Amino acid sequence: MAEPTATALNDAIHSGLLEFTEDIYGQIVRFQREELTNVCVAPICLYDMLSMLLSGSGGATRIELQQVLHWPGRFSDSIVHHAISAFTMSCLLPFTRTGMARRMFLLKHAQLKPQFMNDLHYYYKCTVEKIDTLKGIESKRRYINRWVTESTQHQITNLVPVDLITEASWSCVLSALHCETSSTKVATRETLFHLLNGSKRYVQMMHKVDRILMLELPELEAFAIKLPLHLSNYQLLLILPYANNGLVNLVQHLEQPGTLSTILAEEFTYEILSLYVPQFTQGHRGNPDLNPILFGLGLVSLFDRTKADLSGMMEEMGLAISHIIHRAIFEIADLGAVNQAVIASPGTEAIREFRADHPFFLCLLYDHHTPIVIGHVVKPRRSRGPIYAVCETPKQSSVDSLASWLSTHKLRPVELSRQLSGITEEQNALPVLLDGRLVGWSSSWAECLLLANELRDLKLDKSSTQVPYSLEIAAVPPTEVGSQYPGLYLFTGASRLLRPVKNIKNGSQVGAGGLVEWIGTFEQPYLNIAVTEKELEERSAEDQSHIELSPECIFSFVAGLTPYQEFNQVFASITR
Q1: How far is Cα 535 from Cα 205, in angstroms, rounded to an integer?
Q2: Which stretch is the leader sequence (predicted)?
Q3: pLDDT in tens, 416-430
Q4: Of 55, 260, 339, 421, which is most buried, counting CB atoms within 10 Å of its CB?
């Protein structure tokens, strides 16, 4: 065997990984001939995992693995295994502690060779775990899933689906990777995304203007960018078709051997782009069983007990790998750091738009050329974490109709002074304000409460056009101690947090269990909101007005307002 230089060996491994990436992506695309769906796979993890199996194989199985991996056979196996392990670990370093899991599980009793176990640990820092003593397939499946969940810090759960492993399953090899470009989620705007079938859906779109590496691909009817990420030395390759439905044509080109390698070898040039990319999480769904994909690549004997040669792995013959299970989850929550010099400079360079508002291809790269995660986005899935609601802006017509309604309800006029209108004689008179504007005076607290209840009845009446459902009605009572200035405060404007509770006092369906009412943060302290039915039983009828939709409902809103939600393990864990 040749004594390799470090450069020659790394080049050979990198070349083999690129070819393997193109092969496996092409095979996945061929499985989606009828309809393209979201794809996310980590070829570098699969390359690493299959290299482990090669160290314990022989005969035809070894030859098949070498062909699938494009193994650099001119070098000795020990040197190649050591180099592959070092190469993959350097590429995956940010994810190894909290987002990566790989292990071989023996579901039935078998005697493994000590040399294989030593090689696996020495080269790949991986182990084989025997769980043959666990009773029942379901207990084994749960054990594996629990281990993956703990190894990935609860980022990947339920990796092995029900019914995947059976009583006939002897072993499974699994690999899981969670890649998160940043723990900080940037501001987004709701924007339409065009689907392949011609329909549209709303997605959360991120935006920035920056100088970004770009490449025109006219032969693919697309253009590509390399987006720098917060993770040092990582880039996101996005290839966007010109047409909204151009992904089908694009993947047909990308499934051909050499296409992706050619694109990565091209010289990208910097251009100032106005960049729009959806905020999404890729890879939660889909069958994690890769047996059919690898079988299509030519890895046939590994899964057949009559043909598999695992003589370097175990003492017994007639055993095979039952399942190779893989899942990669890729989250993009921001677009990386913005070059402030680009924004501040008054240059004359034209700004082009890169708007990923239709299906596109993606590839997470290490050092511009090594694929970590590859796939395509057909229908962006919202990033995980606290759920943000789609907001509606109140219409001005609703505000005008409410002001008109209030003017007909015996309020003391605003035009006259307090002295002329006789309010100085009525010390209990309270102001009525609409969006901070004084619209009249109520002669007493009792009259103020009657007006508030009448407004709340109309608010709950779906047929009413005079009072919007988003109206906030805060009746602040007079007290003997210092407090909020008493009066009736009405709010209809935007930028208010509203949440649903059940009104059991107002409306026409009180006897039917109450109506859902949206309340605001200002009025909440002045309402009697029970958490459970038991609380209502303990209160008098006068103290009953609202009840939570569910006992834990309030925590969803508290978590949404908590700074750094991803690091708050109390409320964040409750809402997930």
Answers
A1: 43
A2: none
A3: 545 445 554 456 788
A4: 260
